[in-house]
Amino acid sequence: MMTSNLDKSDRSDGDRAKARAYVREFIPAMLAYCVVIVVVLTFGDLDGSSPWRFVWAVLPVLPLIGVAVAVIRHVRRLDDYQQRLNLQAFGVGFAVAMGAAITVGLLQSAGLSTRAGGWIIFGAGMAGWGVTAIVVARRG
Amino acid sequence: MKNSLRSLREAKGWTQGALADRLEVSRQTVNALETGKYDPSLPLAFRIARLFDRAIEEVFDPDG
């Protein structure tokens, strides 16, 4: 087609700049999270009886705040249309997480014993977010 | 809502990415505008009209 050169799907300079800014903020926070997780699992004695183990257990939340800030700043840099697509993905992720939380809660009230309940909810929510983000990005 | 964004852009010889940079939006957004999947906000519609030196109703057809 005559206009194919003008319709190429390369990202714009602005898109690349936003992606670079996101990576610059997200990767260090994620690396910090990985380091803290390894340190906590190695030295935290989470299966022990010291009350300090609870402090160790929540330490990975600190770098996760950095991850959350990176995501929020990224979303704020997006234009209206991209924010709308992201809102759909966040909405589905939230709904899936809430559905998973209720399901796990009901199963636990019926006697199901699992220590992974929080991780199941987290995984379901992230999967809902991720899959929807891919679908709406392709559709958009 | 139909619009003439694609033909206006092509008349200038711009890629979607080049137009996106001029409008300070993503290439994905330009594509969504051109394919009618997204109706722009009023500020963005004004930016588009100004960029091509047209009135908004010359770029966007509310009856389309």
Automatic annotation (TrEMBL), chain B:
Every HTH cro/C1-type domain range: 5-59
InterPro entries, A to Z: Cro/C1-type_HTH, Lambda_DNA-bd_dom_sf
Keyword terms: DNA-binding
Coiled-coil region(s): none
Keyword Transmembrane helix: no
Keyword Cell cycle tagged: no
GO molecular function: DNA binding
Protein name: Transcriptional regulator, XRE family
The species this protein was found in: Nakamurella multipartita (strain ATCC 700099 / DSM 44233 / CIP 104796 / JCM 9543 / NBRC 105858 / Y-104) (Microsphaera multipartita)
